[in-house]
């Protein structure tokens, strides 16, 4: 039996089907989870996908953070369940305080959609072991509220503890402090990033490369080897 990875759909989610396909291509079994679910149906990991949950009212991710499915997710993530937040999912993880910092409107005040060059800073999380530290990859990016910010103490702590997972290269698309594109929690089981790895898993789509597939093969290998 292969690993079962849940993908949560909120009202306004856009990339749940793409994420399920990426999981399937990696060799795992995607499990659809609904925002009103009160349990995680015994999945081995969870992805919070991209989109505009609840229309981004109040703040991006602020309402989704209180969805029923988040209660068991919060409890199990703190106990070690691997969780990946992509774009809106990253915003939800910061609102839920599973990851530090917060997301603001892009500094140029416009929606942006482009292929984005990144550097892998931490290849030791549950979701990044199939990368190497320092590796440069290209992942599609699309967001309106993608500016990562935190106070100076938090930023210094993230840097010192190696918890910056990904950094923008060549061009900072949204004004994120210190070019941060993604971060991880202390345990390395929870990762959030603004770019969309699920759109870079087949040569035919996205960037025309498969630079995003290692997210999903990394977690599969971790779960299979547990």
Automatic annotation (TrEMBL):
Database matches in Gene3D superfamilies: 3.40.50.880
Gene Ontology molecular function, alphabetical: ATP binding; glutaminase activity; phosphoribosylformylglycinamidine synthase activity
Keyword Nucleotide-binding assigned: yes
InterPro entries in UniProt: Class_I_gatase-like, PRibForGlyAmidine_synth_PurQ
Pfam families noted in UniProt: GATase_5
PROSITE patterns: GATASE_TYPE_1
SMART domains, alphabetized: GATase_5 (SM01211)
Gene Ontology terms: cellular component: cytoplasm
Residue numbers annotated as active site: 87 (nucleophile), 196, 198
Its EC number(s): 6.3.5.3, 3.5.1.2
Protein's GO biological process: 'de novo' IMP biosynthetic process
Annotated keywords: ATP-binding, Cytoplasm, Glutamine amidotransferase, Hydrolase, Ligase, Nucleotide-binding, Purine biosynthesis
Principal subcellular localization: cytoplasm
Pathway connected to this protein: Purine metabolism; IMP biosynthesis via de novo pathway; 5-amino-1-(5-phospho-D-ribosyl)imidazole from N(2)-formyl-N(1)-(5-phospho-D-ribosyl)glycinamide: step 1/2
Subunit field text: Part of the FGAM synthase complex composed of 1 PurL, 1 PurQ and 2 PurS subunits.
Alphabetical list of NCBIfam families matching this protein: FGAM_synth_I, PRK03619.1
HAMAP family in UniProt: PurQ
UniProt protein name: Phosphoribosylformylglycinamidine synthase subunit PurQ
Source organism of this protein record: Streptomyces resistomycificus
